[in-house]
Structures are given as structure tokens and as C-alpha cells.
Design brief:
Length: 395
């Protein structure tokens, strides 16, 4: 069984569509949870004017009845409220108005290479789909994956650990309770002092017409050992997680656990020693590996970090070239955010959730969610891991 995610839509078009195929029947969904994740994607100090226009909500168009999945594809639609201001420029059909083409590609964006690849003369034909507005559709689909994971005992959270040169303290062991108030932070950072410094950094660079990048971290708790595989490169879970994070717009690097730091350590300090006792079974006291060893989850929290570049749309545009005349010009100037690292963390949650949910579907199958739970519990018993029912009752 495979979980599939398809998104469609343009940034200023009529709306976005998400199709998720492969969820089992009988999975309970809550509309409020899906819309809450969409609202969380719009959080963060440094967002631009568009967030005052859009109030994202997902409408279910297929695959759900009375709050439970039916086993077929689930379709979600997210309207673009800003479309009313762009109807002439983004109408699917020809319009009577004169709509000028855009010929000013932005350095760091898909604009120029997209027009070259697809034989287009208008940069807008590329930038509308390349826009990070598409991630609203991913978050909607990821919310379904998170509901599935919650049903098998997995919880996923994210937080910001760096904006430009401002970095939060290093965190060791964290549990789900530590994330209870993360969305109350203006930058979704767990450390109040670092958050204040990040806000000041955004304010300072925004006044200087700059954009800002940074680093977010996603943590998944309750993941069973053995998702993914060592037997072939395409089944290695760390590779699949890395691809999912790097597929997010403006992401330039990814690490599993302390993947960057351990490159500078000796082996004795880089690996997680293994222990065993009757109460806990096999366990580790550190998690440098980020919960993944040999391409498989090892039972520790899965930790994934993403590095985001500064956004390529600047209020003081960089130098570029007019693709119609080949003359020097300033890059396209559009309404933009100055910093979206806090929102990118929420998108990262969605992508990690989707990869892990797909790994559970591949390993455990099941046409109904009760079949999935039964298979997960049987596997837990076989490897001596706490059964799902016991885990959920303990919570």
C-alpha cells in the first residue's frame, strides 16, 4: 500500500487542490485540526500583506463521509481569496483586457530557467506554480497524514532554531509537552530570549530591504523501529525524508539529527550507544542519529532539520536581465514576505508526516484503520516494543 500526494494550483489562481490517495477507511478526521494547520502555516513575524488577505480553510470534495475516510482518494480544496484581485491576469480563459507579460526574472527563483525549459515568454507562467503558496496544499494533505499517524501513536512538531545568524540554544532530549506553546512565539522558537533576538533581526533587515533565511527542526515522537530499509537505496528512510524537505520551496540543505555536527566529531562522540533493560528494552541515551540508522527508524524520535535560504523576492530588487530585450534591468518586484522560516517549519511537519505515513502504509497495509492498528500491535509484540493500546492509554 502506497500513500500518494498530488497538489495543483497557482499562487494567484482560483485556488489550490490536494489529492491524497492510500488512506485506509474508517480514519476519523477533524476539520478543525486540518484548518488549524493551515492557520499555523500563516504564522510568524516577517510575513507580508498577503497573509492579511488569505484565511486558508480546506473544503473536502471527496473521500470523507461524516468525518471518516471511505478508503478512496481524499480531495481538499483551498480557495485563493486574492484571486478576485488577479482575475484578469490569472483567468484560465482569454480575457478582453490587455494583460502585459512579465519579463524580469528574479535571481534565486525559478523564473528564468522555467521560461527556458518550457519555452515560455512570460515569467508569470512559471512563478505562479513555483511560488511557496503551493505549500498550503501540502499542509492540507500533511494534516491528513498527521491524523493517520496520530491513530498509530505518532505525534509531529516543529520549531525554529535559527534565523540568519541568530541561533537558539542547542536542545537535547525534548518531549511532546515541550512544544505546547511553540505557536505562541512570534517566530515559533522554544527559547524566549532567542525569539526576541530573532524578531529584532527581522525588523532590522526588513528595514534594510532584505529577506532572511534560517533553520527549522521537525521532531516525530512514537515512531516504531524498522520503517524504511537498508536493502536498496530508494527505500532508505533518511533519503526519502531529505528529498521531502528539499522539495519545499527555498530549502537548500537538510540534516537528519546531528548530521552536520557529527561530521566534525570523532566516532566515539558521534554515535548513540545501545543499552538494554527489562523495563525499557533496547534504548539509547543520546540521539545524534536523529532516530534513523541504516536507512531505518530505530525507535528514537525522528529529528529532521531544514536550511532555508533568504527569499528571492526583495523589496529592493537585485540586478537581472529583461528576457524580451536582453537589456539590464531590475528583477521583478512583487508583494512578498521578509521571513517565512516559522511557516516553513509547519510545511516541514507536513512533509515529514507524509513520508512517515507512507512508510507505515508500506509496512503494515490494511484496508481499515483497525486493520492497521492490529498489524502495528502485532509487530510491536514481535520486537518487544510497547503495544499501541498501552502507549495510548498511558497518554
Amino acid at each position: 500500500m502506497t500513500l500518494k500526494l498530488i497538489t495543483a494550483g497557482e499562487s494567484h489562481g482560483p485556488g489550490l487542490t490536494t489529492i491524497v490517495e492510500g488512506l485506509p477507511a474508517g480514519l476519523a478526521l477533524e476539520q478543525e485540526r486540518i484548518n488549524r494547520d493551515l492557520a499555523r502555516r500563516q504564522l510568524g513575524h516577517g510575513r507580508g500583506g498577503r497573509m492579511k488577505i488569505e484565511t486558508d480553510k480546506a473544503d473536502v470534495r471527496s473521500g470523507v463521509r461524516h468525518g471518516r475516510t471511505l478508503g478512496g482518494p481524499v480531495t481538499l480544496a483551498v480557495d485563493n481569496r486574492d484571486y478576485q484581485n488577479w482575475e484578469e491576469r490569472m483567468n484560465p480563459w482569454p480575457v478582453d483586457a490587455d494583460v502585459p507579460e512579465v519579463h524580469l526574472p528574479r535571481p534565486g527563483h525559478a523564473d528564468l530557467v522555467g521560461t527556458q525549459k518550457y519555452g515560455l515568454s512570460d515569467v508569470r507562467d512559471v512563478l505562479e506554480r513555483a511560488s511557496a503558496r503551493e505549500t498550503a496544499a501540502r499542509v492540507a494533505g500533511g494534516a491528513l497524514a498527521k491524523e493517520f499517524l496520530r491513530a498509530v501513536g505518532v505525534e509531529i512538531y516543529s520549531h525554529v532554531i535559527q534565523i540568519t545568524g541568530v541561533r537558539a540554544p542547542d536542545y537535547g532530549v525534548l518531549g511532546p509537552a515541550d512544544f505546547s506553546a511553540v505557536d505562541d512565539s512570534p517566530v515559533r522558537c522554544l527559547d524566549a530570549d532567542a525569539a526576541q533576538a530573532m524578531v529584532q533581526e527581522i525588523n532590522t533587515l526588513r528595514k534594510a530591504n532584505e529577506s532572511l533565511g534560517g533553520v527549522f527542526e521537525v521532531r516525530a515522537f512514537g515512531v516504531v523501529p524498522g520503517l524504511g530499509s537498508h536493502v536498496s537505496w530508494e527505500e532508505r528512510l533518511d533519503g526519502r525524508l531529505s528529498q521531502a524537505i528539499l522539495s519545499i520551496q527555498a530549502m537548500k540543505a537538510v540534516a537528519i539529527g546531528d548530521g552536520v555536527e557529527v561530521a566534525g566529531l570523532p566516532g566515539s562522540a558521534a554515535h548513540d550507544e545501545i543499552f538494554y533493560d527489562e523495563e525499557r528494552g533496547y534504548h539509547r541515551e543520546t540521539n545524534h542519529a536523529g532516530g534513523v540508522e541504516g536507512g531505518m527508524t530505530n525507535g528514537d524520535p525522528v529529528i529532521v532539520r531544514g536550511w532555508m535560504k533568504p527569499l528571492p523576492t526583495l523589496t529592493k530588487p537585485l540586478r537581472s536581465v529583461d528576457i524580451a530585450t536582453h537589456e539590464p534591468a531590475e528583477a521583478l518586484r512583487e508583494r512578498t514576505d521578509s521571513c517565512t522560516v516559522p511557516a516553513a517549519g509547519v510545511v516541514g511537519e507536513a512533509m515529514v508526516a507524509f513520508v512517515l505515513a507512507d512508510a507505515y502504509r508500506n509496512k503494515f497495509g490494511g484496508d481499515h484503520i483497525d486493520d492497521v492498528r492490529g498489524a502495528v500491535d502485532a509487530y510491536r509484540r514481535r520486537i518487544g516494543w510497547p503495544e499501541l493500546a498501552a502507549l495510548q492509554s498511558a497518554r
